[in-house]
Design goal:
The chain is α/β, with parallel strands linked by helices. Helices cover 33% and strands 14% of the residues. It contains 10 helices and 7 strands. It starts with a helix and ends in a 5-residue tail after the last helix.
Length: 243
């Protein structure tokens, strides 16, 4: 399944009330939203019909979130669904995730693109191919190490996979505090060393299996009923079989 088809199905299943996207480009993924939406990109050229009320922000994600401060992208409402597909370098991906989490709730779902490169050339930090993931694949190990409280679901979409992150905590700033150390450890000269499990897509769920997970019902039905602790426990319980 192509990643755009998966995201369209996720919108249908999750029924988000707000959607934020980093990395708009032509608007292929942004056009899938049917709820209040924000698209952030310093150089977008949208050529798709946007059928939801959408604010297009021509800025880098760093500048956008800095301008918000402690404000909310959706006037006091949390981000229900976010898609991160911006600059394909690990330091930017970590910052983008940390920014989104600051404006999240336990029920926020974050999807990161390009986490399963198909070869070393695609994963280079210095782009020299048409299809390019950069070293985004490192985000899975960063989150697993620095934020083991988060729930991670890898999905084997085409062409280069998705990572879904659940159980967010806007009060946890560990990623921001550790950013310099994360960058020091993770940034390496090309060619990048890609773990065999990444190239082989080990542990990645088939898209249909990921969409069938009971966690989506838990999130959708619990948004307005669960407190943060109850919600995170519900997510962890729904995904326990995967572990």
């Amino acid at each position: 399944m192509n990643y755009l088809d998966f995201i369209a199905r996720l919108h249908e299943t999750l029924q988000p009330r707000s959607y934020l996207e980093i990395g708009v480009r032509g608007g292929d993924s942004l056009s899938l939203s049917r709820c209040e939406s924000i698209g952030i990109d310093p150089d977008f050229t949208v050529n798709r019909e946007l059928r939801a009320p959408t604010s297009l922000i021509r800025a880098t994600s760093d500048d956008y979130f800095e301008s918000l401060g402690r404000g909310s992208p959706f006037e006091g409402k949390p981000i229900d669904l976010a898609f991160i597909d911006g600059m394909h370098l690990i330091e930017f991906v970590v910052k983008d995730f940390a920014h989104v989490e600051l404006h999240s709730e336990w029920s926020t779902v974050v999807v990161l693109d390009d986490v399963l490169p198909r070869n070393v050339d695609e994963a280079a930090r210095d782009r020299h191919t048409q299809e390019w993931t950069g070293d985004v694949f490192k985000i899975r190990s960063v989150l697993a190490t620095v934020r083991p409280d988060l729930s991670l679901v890898m999905v084997d979409t085409q062409p280069t996979g998705l990572l879904i992150v659940l159980g967010l905590d806007p009060d946890d700033r560990q990623l921001t505090q550790d950013l310099d150390e994360i960058v020091r450890i993770q940034i390496a000269p090309d060619p990048q060393v890609i773990p065999s499990e990444v190239l082989e897509r080990s542990g990645a769920l088939a898209p249909e299996a990921a969409l069938a997970l009971p966690v989506w019902n838990e999130i959708r039905e619990g948004r307005d009923r669960y407190d943060a602790a109850t919600g995170r426990n519900a997510i962890a319980g729904s995904l326990r079989a995967l572990a």
